[in-house]
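Progress narrative, Year 2. Work on N-acetyldiaminopimelate deacetylase from Bacillus haynesii advanced from sequence curation to structure prediction during this period.
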Amino acid sequence: MKLDELAAIRRDLHQIPELGFQEYKTQAYLLNHLAKHPEDRIEIEKWRTGLFVKVKGTDPEKILAYRADMDGLSIREDTGYPFSSVHQDRMHACGHDFHMTIALGIIDHFVSHPVKQDLLFLFQPAEEGPGGAEPMLESDLFKKWEPSMITALHIAPELPVGTIGTKSGLLFANTSELVIELEGKGGHAAYPHLAEDMVVAASSLVTQMQSIVARNVDPLDSAVITIGTITGGSAQNIIAQEARLEGTIRTLSPASMEQVKKRIEAMVKGLETAYQCSGKVSYPAAYYQVYNSSGLVEDFMQFVSENGLAEVVRSKEAMTGEDFGYMLKKYPGFMFWLGVDSPYGLHHAKLQPKEEALETAVRVMTAYFSSKAN
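Result:
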């Protein structure tokens, strides 16, 4: 598929971003594109708002898999594109329009250029939340078409086009959403001694939690606790009865994630005593680390470099999260960064990845799968 064809698909998908498990238009668009392929070359199965697509091998003994995520984000787009999102306050600000386009490009290639092994393409919904990888893994279709290895990519705004980056072992962190709800006794601002102020309690808790990373996590490990929003109270002269904190936890090891959660829960219990309130801690979505299989990813990097398919750089681990980690927990494989050279980063309203990177990714993956599937 030529660059202009890939760019046209990407622009179509960019205009219809949908949130997790609401990707109905996206699924329909993918199905419409895939319908042009002969039925004797391809098998398609729906899974919720996602898809399993198998390109049949000539004499298959195993299945090689590739995953592309589908959902957009709750962001009002500010790119100025003539093909900007037509869905208000929704945007493909994490590159999933790129990821799906690349998968379609690879599929189109192998439908007309058969290889020995079966190739399985997973169009996965809800990567941004609430998490589609885990339930997809548990589906009957995944059990029917179990891969011997699985790969994926993610756009990297900071890398130039024509470059890919990855590494052995840990690439993306363990991540978890965090919600803390506090409830006490509200009252009149003039009589604070007759109430329990949840704004004060919440403020105290935010300060306390900063000590967890400094004093409860191994200094040779890394962790981040960020509280992104605090809401509480209803008027300036009323002592708040309730407060809600929302944030994220990110760690470089599963053990540190458990330790951080235990310490937060212990602090909330202490807060209940100190402020005579009730507290509830929840983790709406949590993602397992992306841990690349060393042998496979080193072989991939060497293959790409030796064949001049792209410039290869060795990445550092990042505190970003990706539910592809659950797939790598179960199956050998790897993820890599694809350079798209944007001045604005992931999840930014002005993210503008360069479309030339689409051609780079399709070239790299078709060559790599051809080498592994014959």
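Residues 267 and 273 are 10 Å apart (CA to CA). The mean pLDDT is 97.
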